[in-house]
Amino acid sequence: MITFEEITKNQAIKTYITRADESLLALGYTEHSFSHVLHVARTAGYILETLGYDSRTVEIAKIAGYLHDIGNLVNRQDHSQSGAVMAWSILNDMGCDPGEMATIVTAIGNHDEGTGVPVNAMAAAMILADKADVRRTRVRMKDPREFDIHDRVNYSVTKSCLTINPEKTQISLDLDVDTSYGSVMDYFEIFTNRMILCRKAAHTLGLQFRLTINGQQLV
């Protein structure tokens, strides 16, 4: 069985992630490189492990998280679908089990808010892990005067934490926002669709989704 460690050490995959992020840099997007994909991998794994899924399912979730943005190598438009096709080809060449490969491809193909649907637990965990990665260090611009709204929102988030409560009934995204860089309304202007998708993803996992900004529960 293919392991998460094996995937992260694969040089071809590293090249695809690097080149995909270079394309997004040229387009002015926030960071989508190893920091992001490792964050998504580990967070998706945390979600499923905390909810009691078996260790192999957790491992598959981490693999899917690491591969989820390689479609940006092709084009930002429909990157989840092209990434799913790329992942199928990579994993097939590596001799991945067809059932596991199908689960990974489905999760990748459904992680984007434009077309994604939390059709199963793996896709739901991927969505929550991806959309919760809002943080200052994803911003590439150095001069705040050059920030667009996405830069302002990400730069304003000084702390981001996604947790599941002990009763395993609620998943919470808690943000600390420095409003001197971006307002709470800025956040909702660009992330409303993402938060709606997170709520649907949480529901798929049998959870309620809660969003708290600066100690105030908003969702």
Radius of gyration: 17 Å
CATH topology: Hypothetical protein af1432
Task: Give the strand order of the largest sheet, numbering strands 1, 2, ... along the chain.
Answer: 1-2-3-4
Q: Which oligomerization state do the chains in this entry correspond to? A: single chain
Taken as a percent bin, the fraction of beta residues is 5-15%
Q: Main beta sheet, described? A: 4 strands, mixed
Query: How many individual domains?
Result: 1
User: Based on DSSP secondary structure assignment, what is the total number of beta strands?
Assistant: 4
User: Topology as H/E string?
Assistant: HHHHHHHHEEHEE
What can you tell me about this protein's structure?
The protein has 219 residues and is of the alpha+beta class. The protein has a single domain, classed as Hypothetical protein af1432, CATH 1.10.3210. The protein is 55% helix and 11% strand. It is built from 9 helices and 4 strands, in the order H-H-H-H-H-H-H-H-E-E-H-E-E. Helix 6 (98-109) packs across helix 7 (121-131) and helix 8 packs across helix 9 (184-204). It is globular, with a radius of gyration of 17 Å.
Blueprint (SSEs and pairs):
Layout: H1 4-9, H2 11-27, H3 34-50, H4 55-67, H5 79-93, H6 98-109, H7 121-131, H8 149-156, E1 157-164, E2 170-177, H9 184-204, E3 208-213, E4 216-217
Parallel strand pairs: 2-3
Antiparallel strand pairs: 1-2, 3-4
Summarize the structure.
With 219 residues, this protein is of the alpha+beta class.
Task: Summarize this structure as a short list of keywords or feature phrases.
219 residues; 9 helices; 55% helix; 4-stranded mixed sheet; Hypothetical protein af1432
